[in-house]
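Quick question, first post here. What does this chain look like in 3D?
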Amino acid sequence: MTRTASIPTIETDAARVGIRGWAALVVLMLPVLLVSVDNTVLSFALPEISIALAPSGAEQLWIIDVYPLVLAGLLVTMGTLGDRFGRRRLLLIGASGFAAVSALAAFAPTAAMLIAARALLGFFGAMLMPSTLSLLRSIFQNRDQRRLAIAIWASAFSAGSALGPIVGGFLLEHFAWGSVFLVAVPVLIPLLVFAPLVVPESRDPNPGRIDPLSILLSMAAMIPAVYAIKSLAVDGPTWTAGGWAALGVVMGVLFVRRQLRAEIPMLDMALFRLGSFSGAILVNLLSVVALVGFLYFVSQHVQLVLGLSPMEAGFALVPGMAAMIVSGLLVVPVSRRVRPSLLIPGALVFSVAGYLLVAFTTSDHGVVPLILAFVVLGIGIGAAETISNELILSSAPAEKAGAASAVSETAYELGAVLGTAILGGIITAFYRGALVLPPGLPDGVAATARETLAGAYTAAAELPARQGDALWEAAAAAFGSGVMVTSMIGAALVVVAGAIAAVTLRTSPSH
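> Answer (accepted):
Ran it through. Tokens below.
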């Protein structure tokens, strides 16, 4: 037996919340703020982590990717568990575990240990994100208030991303790289104290049974697929990558078939027949791929190639993060008058322009074009993400808010993985292909320099001045050669997102 999802009644006349509801929003912004700070801080800490732990190119990507990879594999499961056992309860469990593991990650002695700690952070992080968005759905039943609440909630991502480089820059200039993980503890303590006081518990009144096989199938579909993409980005087309991709596809098909046959499925696949739901999910996915990929190579470019300190690099990206916040808030009144099928593509035109600005100005080796590019890109991403997140929640029945939120967050985290794996992998491949090493380098130094830009930076510092300078000039030129191609691919992804929005969001819920 299968169920058919329908667009729910629009709650324009629903009761409006008072001060307690807005206080709950403030509390629910804390884990969002933390996750976005963590992602940005780690990108900026990556050069120091690479120097301290000497990871290989693959390990460097895993340090970034294992966290969103585990999240992506568990978000649907955790969203469903929150619907059944209580979204606030799951939020508090996730916050406690995230704080404890963050302290362990701060003192990881090897790249492998850091990767393991990041995997555990992904496990507990999967409890945080679906809970926050689904709790907003239950608290803000009036759609006008919910639009504003989601815009503020989404701005916490941008605010955290803006604060991350500044806080991380300060920590990295005064303390060891592990300090960037310790920021989770003071952020999560207020959540654990105030959430029981101001955030009401909510759950699905008619939850389905826990289906262990569906849980395993969802993870077996997500993890091999993402691993295949990572392998393809790092090593190129191989039989191994193809095998993992095939396994992910087969497990995904089995997961979907099981959900379609279940009387009460873990994930209602009928939701994906709604253009407003599936279209908004794809917009989220592609927008995050573009954003995270941009941050991955720009954070390395401004620190290693342009020579900015971590804090200086953080301040350089603050205007772009601010643009994301402002555009996300300003789009709320506009969204009442302009249909999403027009508004989102119009917003994403700015993001395309930002990527093109990077493609054609980075060769000048100046920081100002990058700042301007990120401002323009941020305007588009901030507006598009606010509208798409609101559409996802409005399209799903209120009692299934956890599962719908989990799908939204899965798209976000999968986008983060793909942004690093695809765009990060492409620029790494171009770097290796374009790198012309000066003659006479020891084999070990040459191998280190070929792995990553940070490896070349470390190797150059250990060589005699003339030879080191020659190596670094070659590495910087090779890295820069990949920026144009990577930026053009990022622009193409945003164009695809805009086209999807224009086609699929014509039947979005009335506003």
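The CA atoms of residues 166 and 394 lie 35 Å apart.
The chain has two domains: 19-199+266-507, 212-265.
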